């Protein structure tokens, strides 16, 4: 019944304005979610970062051809930190930004005394370290995390027994 009361031109105008309003809200939400500043890295950076995630293991082809000739290439097993939510990293030296990183290859220098391979895969951990850009064929993610401290943490829904 209301269709006869509201003229057709007015109905189209209301629909058009409503659609425009919804598009404006959607554009604002997209802009707000992308406003998070990326983590900045540069050569000689001393900034520490703390990341939570699941420590996993993955094998990649290594020397001499890094996968071009699987029959003769060695395999490298590395540890990866899998993040629930992606991070953005900006390299100030090159001016590049890598967005939505969800896996980071992790390593520990011998001087730290940390053996990442002694921690079982699929373990939830908190890692304090420094983010570095990938620079060689042995680096299998866009950025790496040099571990300074690693703590195992229980799963959020785990039952703690006394």
Brief characterization of the structure:
The protein is α/β, with parallel strands linked by helices and 162 residues long. It has two domains: 2-33; 39-152, OB fold (Dihydrolipoamide Acetyltransferase, E2P), CATH 2.40.50. 19% of the residues lie in helices and 41% in strands.
Structure report:
With 162 residues, the protein is of the alpha/beta class. The chain folds into two domains: 2-33; 39-152, OB fold (Dihydrolipoamide Acetyltransferase, E2P) (Beta Barrel). Helix content is 19%, strand content 41%. Strands 2-3-4-6-5 form a five-stranded mixed beta barrel.
What's the helix and strand layout?
Elements: H1 2-5, H2 8-33, E1 39-41, E2 49-61, E3 75-91, E4 96-107, E5 123-133, E6 143-152
Parallel strand pairs: 1-3, 4-6
Antiparallel strand pairs: 2-3, 2-5, 3-4, 5-6
Succession of helices and strands? HHEEEEEE
Q: How is the biggest beta sheet arranged?
A: 5 strands, mixed, barrel
**Number of helical runs?**
2
Task: Tell me the strand percentage band.
Answer: 35-45%
Structural domain tally: 2
Radius of gyration: 24 Å
Features:
single chain; 162 residues; alpha/beta; OB fold (Dihydrolipoamide Acetyltransferase, E2P); 2 domains; five-stranded mixed beta barrel; 6 strands; 19% helix; 41% strand; extended; disordered C terminus
